[in-house]
Amino acid sequence: MDRTELPLDVRLMNLVTHGLVAVFVLLCLGALATWVARNPAWAVRRIVVQGDLTHQNAVGLRAQLAAPLRKVPTGFMTMDLQQVRQMFEAVPWVRHAKVQREFPNRLRVTLEEHKAVAWWGEAGSGQLVSDRGEVFEASPDDSDDLPELVGPIEQAPQMWGLFQTLSAELGRLDLTLVRLELNERGSWRAVLDNDAHIELGRGTPEDLLERTRRFTTTISQLSQRYPGDLQSVDLRYPNGYALRVQGVTTVSEDTSKKPTQTR
Prior knowledge:
Low-confidence stretches: 255-263
Largest sheet: 11 strands, mixed
Strand order of the largest sheet: 6-5-4-7-8-9-10-11-12-13-14
Helix content: 25-40%
Strand content: 25-35%
CATH architecture of the largest domain: 3-Layer(aba) Sandwich
Shape: elongated
């Protein structure tokens, strides 16, 4: 008898039977896969840590994360690599962690550390700025030479970029920039290593560099006439700047003119 000639109820019964058999086979395969994945023979037995380890060491890092890692499923295929990555990135100095499975039972973690270039806020605040302009929490081994950046945290990348630009320009006069501030009104202020401060005012980085360059290219003329330790500079004038040295205050109107006011 042809299958098409079977009664409708028989054909429906056959379809249901085949469907149930298929579901049963899939469930069996799923259970088998789960058993294999969770079998102790497939548990992760070793974590290899490599990459930037300037402020961390592999042994200490594994010991530090031993307790949190025990809460993560240890199966080679079931371990949540995203969760493991987040655990490593929560460690001080770690900027990025790349976690990879290595057959049959090993994880390889490659670390990238922050490179601290400045304090965020006051020295010793516990917050640092990286060479990428990212703010992170850590305590450096040697912080004596780190400058300070103070301002809104979302401006950290811009502040670090401007710090480098101004530091290079002031360095032409052997002046060392140690602190850069951006207040809530958007006005910039620089502090030198001798505690002299430079009022930069508002504007784009290009504007601030132009004002600073106006100062660095003319200060030698004023220094010859008014010798003394530099105390403050105000660059907020449209065509000149005010300069205060020990015992003298002067205003310079142009790069080619002599000071116009002294008191």
